Amino acid sequence: MIIIWGCSDPISQKDFSLTLNITGELDQKIYLSKRDAGKWVNIDSSSIATGELVINGEINEPEMFYLRSGRDLASIFMEAGEITFTAHADSINKGTINGSKTQAEFDSFNESISSITNQLDTLFTQYRAAAENNDQPVLEGLNNLIDAKDGERLARTKDYAYNKQGKRSDKFLFLDI
Fold it and tell me: How many structural domains comprise the chain?
């Protein structure tokens, strides 16, 4: 008789290690935060100006967190494991994230709707210009185009979420529906 006994430490399956690699020099503290009941909750912070910073913690399931420095913000899915965030100090919002499967799924979804997002950005820019000129006929036409394009984005979001059941990022997509 052979008995194979396997043990796993449930706490270790909840541990995360976030390594921040910042080039350039930050003007302000950097915060790892999350939103809770509409308010910012700071999980950790550092006064590091440049270089590498490691933040360790525990998490039960993938959750959206944010790296904030001044007015610059980057969203990042935190989950158990080793995650790396690399950015320049003056463009935290353009950082790259490695090691988070949920983040990779979310990025893949966002890429799949990027053409719609870009079209909406253009329409919103046109809308602001028309609003400054109080051009009601143009505003009405742009509203219709924005509604149609936003409906297309919503349909794609639903299709992705419903057809990708079991993916880690599903619940965050459903929050957007």
Answer: 2
**What does the alpha-carbon distance between residue 171 and residue 80 come to, in Å, rounded to a whole number?**
17
What are the mean pLDDT values of the chain's consecutive 10-residue runs (177 residues total)? 39 83 90 91 87 90 92 92 94 94 90 94 95 94 95 89 62 50
Stated pTM of the model: 0.72
**Residue 20 lies inside a defined structural domain of this protein:** yes
Strands, DSSP E only, in the chain? 15-23, 30-36, 39-46, 51-58, 63-69, 72-78, 81-88, 96-98
> For residue 153, what are the contacts with CB-CB under 8 A and spacing of at least 6?
113, 116, 117, 120
75 and 43 in one domain? yes
Structure-block tokens of residue 148: 């149609």
* Residue burial 127-137, b: 16+ Cβ < 10 Å; e: rest: beebeeeeeee
Domain's final residue, options 74, 99, 124: 99
Give the number of other Cβ atoms within 10 Å of residue 78's Cβ.
24
